Amino acid sequence: MSRVYNFSAGPAVLPEEVLKEAAEEMMDYRGTGMSVMEMSHRSKAFDDIIKEAEQDLRDLLAIPDNYKVLFLQGGASQQFSAIPMNLMKNGVADYIITGQWAKKAWQEAQKYGKAVAVASSEDETFSYIPDCSDLPIDDDADYVYICENNTIYGTKFKTLPDTKGKILVSDVSSCFLSEPHDVEKYGILYGGVQKNIGPAGVVISIIREDLIRDDVLPGTPTMLKFKTQADKDSLYNTPPCYAIYICGKVFKWLKKLGGLEVMAQMNAEKAKILYDFLDQSEMFKGTVRKEDRSLMNVPFVTGDKDLDAKFVKEAAEAGFVNLKGHRSVGGMRASIYNAMPKEGVEKLVAFMKEFEEANR
Ligand SMILES: *Cc1c(COP(=O)(O)O)cnc(C)c1O
Questions:
Q1: Which of 10, 45, 285, 302 could serve as a FRET partner for 53 with CA atoms 20 to 30 Å apart?
Q2: Are 78 and 224 in contact (CB under 8 A)?
Q3: Given a cut of 90, is residue 360 above it in pLDDT?
């Protein structure tokens, strides 16, 4: 068996311990004589899996009792419509545009009401987070929307925007469980799990109970109504059972490591190794304003397209894969999620040093 260092932005690296455990349980999950993939979502075994996963997530994030945890499908992208359909009572919402994901969510919301871009960093290719301390928030805005960690551009909100009392909705797909999140500051905190938690197929949404209502927009599909899912504890229809099971294992792995404070510390150390190198390198440069740097997604360039391509190719040959940057930024991007070991980042930096030496 040979594993690579996988710097993919998503679906992304998972903890080896989790994969091994899942492999051991593949043919016979704890004496049931079947794989979790083969069992009924109404079975006792699966009921235990989903309940335990929820409890472990609640423990990790200290989720208050007045928040529901939903395991949903359709990707984070489906929430771009579900959120306005469930929350746009006044027909107005404010969006902060910090990248393609926020922009897509904003464009989708325009189908359902007045979605206003109250701030944007598009003028500089989303390489920074706009000042959100005094935004022109609409008086009747139903919520303020952010994408907290911008997977493509490598920026992150280090302080949450001042929403002037309005509900904050945050897409945390690519920073989910990378550090503690103060759940009470949000109306909704949601993310696709395939970046930092588990396999593709699950979106976890943590929703304050008063936002789970019957008076959704007319025409809201039953499946997209939060209340449908909440009333049935995410089992209205068949959930992505196997993916939820893997998420549950990742929650246990995080708990065993010491929880999210410890994870945050580890992530800060890992990212520092790479950023420190970028800051002194004469060849490689980070593309993001320093104070807004993400700890999860680190884009960088050499400034020369051919050299970028050479780097990506040689890195892959050396076992560092998926380093090609998003087509809108170019260059490279190293996604260094929770499951990327520190050693992976250290070795990548050593490789970058060698490459710089050899290509001066
Ligand atoms: C990947 C990503 C999405 C889209 O996720 P899907 O599950 O593919 O719909 C949305 N937001 C962020 C921040 C992402 O990183």
A1: 10
A2: yes
A3: no
Nearest CA to ligand 1 atom 12: 173
Tell me the CA–centroid distance for residue 275 and ligand 1, in Å.
24
Task: Report which protein residue has its CA nearest ligand 1's atom 8.
Answer: 75
Contact 153, 329 (CB under 8 A): yes
38, 86, 130, 155, 193 from 177: Cα distances, Å = 29, 25, 24, 17, 10
Residues classed as catalytic: 101, 171, 195
| Most distant CA pair in the chain, distance | 63
pLDDT tens readout for residues 39-69: 999 999 999 999 999 999 999 999 999 999 9
* Digit-coded pLDDT (tens) for 122-177: 999 999 999 999 999 999 999 999 999 999 999 999 999 999 999 999 999 999 99
Give the pLDDT confidence of 3-21 residue by residue, as tens digits: 999 999 999 999 999 999 9
- 277-330: per-residue pLDDT in tens? 999 999 999 999 999 999 999 999 999 999 999 999 999 999 999 999 998 889
- Residue 74 DSSP one-character state: S
34 CA → ligand 1 middle, Å: 32
Amino acid at 130: P
Ligand 1: residues with CB < 6 A are 10, 75-77, 101, 147, 151, 171, 173-174, 192, 195
CA-nearest residue, atom 11 of ligand 1: 101
